[in-house]
Amino acid sequence: MMQTTFMDNPYPTRRTPLMAANGVVATSHPLAAQAGLQILQAGGNAIDAAVATAITLTLVEPTSNGIGGDGFALIWDGQQLHGLNAAGRAPAALTPASLAQAGITALVPHGWLAVTVPGAPSGWQAMHAKFGTLPFAQLVQPALTYAEQGHAVAPMVARNWAIGVAMARERTAPMYQGFLPTFAPHGSAPLAGSIYTSSAHARTYRHLAQHGVDAFYRGAIGEAILAFSRATGGFLTADDLANHSATWVEPISISYRGQQVWEIPPSGQGLAALIALGILEGLDVAAHPRDSVQTYHTQIEVMKLAFADAHRYIADPDFAAVPVAGLLSPAYLAQRRALIGPTARTPSAGPPPHGGTVYLCTADREGRMVSMIQSNFWGFGSGVVIPDWGIALHNRGYGFTLDPQHPNVLAAGKRPYHTIIPGFLTRAGQAIGPFGVMGGPMQPQGHMQVVANMYDYGLHVQAALDAPRWRVGEGAVYVEPETPRHILAGLEARGHQLVIETEPYGFGRGQIIQRLASGAYIAGSESRCDGAAVGW
Questions:
Q1: 499 Cβ partners below 8 Å, 6+ apart?
Q2: How many angstroms separate the first and last alpha carbons of the chain?
Q3: Which residues carry out catalysis?
Q4: What are the residue ranges spanned by the domains of the chain?
Q5: pLDDT per position as a tens digit, 129-185
Q6: pTM, to two decimals
C-alpha cells in the first residue's frame, strides 16, 4: 500500500481527519453527531450512541430518513461482528395478484403502493436490547428536545427540503394530506438557519420514550398508522405491524489487500460491493495513478459487472436462494475479471456456481463500534405522512419487481431489494472500523471507491472520502466536476458515455472511523454533506 501522511489531501476541501481517544460519532448532520457524542460522554457505549444518533437524524435530516424508514447495522461488540437487518416486509394484502385485480400493472415510487412495514424503530429496539446500557428513553431525549425546542436547519438539508416540498405540492390525494402540515408548517420549506420545531415528531418521540418501540408496532403509534391506512387506501394491517421484527444476520465478507471487507447479506446490495472488490482484488490497480484513465475505466467496468449480477440475483433469501458463495467464489470472480477489456461494454449477469439515506458510525473507548444506515429511500419517501405524528413512511416497496420470473418479485411478507448498506473493515480478526457511503445505487460503488482509495492509493480516511467519485447509471457514467479533464477525454475515447453532474447528492455522503494501533480513533466525514466527525 502506498504511504501517506495525515496532511496529504489532494482534493478540494483540504480537511484533515478527526483524532480522538475516547469515542467518536460521525454522520451527515452535525447536531445528530453531537447527540451521539453526548450519549458517549454520559456513559453510554457505541451502540447507545448509534441509536441516539439515528433517532435524532429522523428529525434534523428528514429529507433522507424518518421514523417510518428502514435500517441496517454492523456492530462490533469488542470481539466479533454482528449484522442486523431492520428492513420491513411487504403487507400481506400487497401481492401481484391483488394489484392485477385492481388493474395496477406497474409499481410507483409514491403513495401506499410503495409502503412496506417500517423497520427502523425495530432496529433501534433490537440494538438497544442486545447491547445497550443506558435507558432507551435517554437515547430518545436529544431528538425530543430538538423537536420541542427547535433546531437550526442545515444548508444541504434545506436545499433538499425545498425540493421535497415542491414535489409534495403536486400531490393532492387524501393519502398525502399529512405531508405539508408536517414539513411545511408555515407554508414553505424552512430555509437554512431557520428554526424548525415539530410537535408531531415530539409526540411520537415521547411515546417511544415512555412506552418503548412496542408502541410503534402494537400500541398507540401503530393504531394511528393503521387508522390512516384504512382511511386513505393503504394496505397495512395490524398483523403486518405486530408480526414485524428486526433480524440478526451473519455478515458476509471478502478479502481485499489484506483487509476483510464486511457487508450485510441480501436482500441488501452489499453483495455488489463485495463482488466488485473481489474482481478488483485480482488486478494491479496501484500500477496506475489514482487519477488516471486506466484506473477509472477499470473500476467502472468492474462495477458494471457487479451490478449485472446484483440486479439479477439479489432478493429476500427467505423467498429465493441467493448464490452468495458462488458469486464470491475465486473461480467465478476470475471469469468475470477476464471480461474487462480496453473499451466500455454493457455486461449481462453470469451463471455463478450455486452454493435518500443517512449513514452513521460510532466508536467507544472500549473498542465497540457501529456501522449503521437508515433511509426513507427517495427523499421524504412515499410522501405519505401520518398526520400529527411526524411519521414519513418510506417507499421501499418500489424496490420490488412484478416480473414473476425474477427472485425479487413482490410477495406478501417479503423484503425488497435494498440499496442501503453499512460497511465494516477487519484485519486478522481485529476491528479496523466502520465505513459507509449513502446514495441509493451509489452505495456499493462508493464502498469500492473509498476502500480502493485507502488500500490501493494510501489515502487517509478524510482524503478517501473527499476524492472525486463517479457512478454507473442508466446508460451513462456520471462524474463530478472536479474530475480531471484528461480523464474525461480518455474515458470518452474508450466508449464511455459521460455526464458531468454538479449535484453532489448523487455521489453519496460518507463517513469512516478507524481504530489506530494506540487505541485512539481517526475519523472523517466528507464535504458533500452537512456532516461532521466529533469525538472526545
A1: 473, 476, 477, 478, 479
A2: 30
A3: 357
A4: 27-244+379-399, 249-357+419-535
A5: 999 999 999 999 999 999 999 999 999 999 999 999 999 999 999 999 999 999 999
A6: 0.94
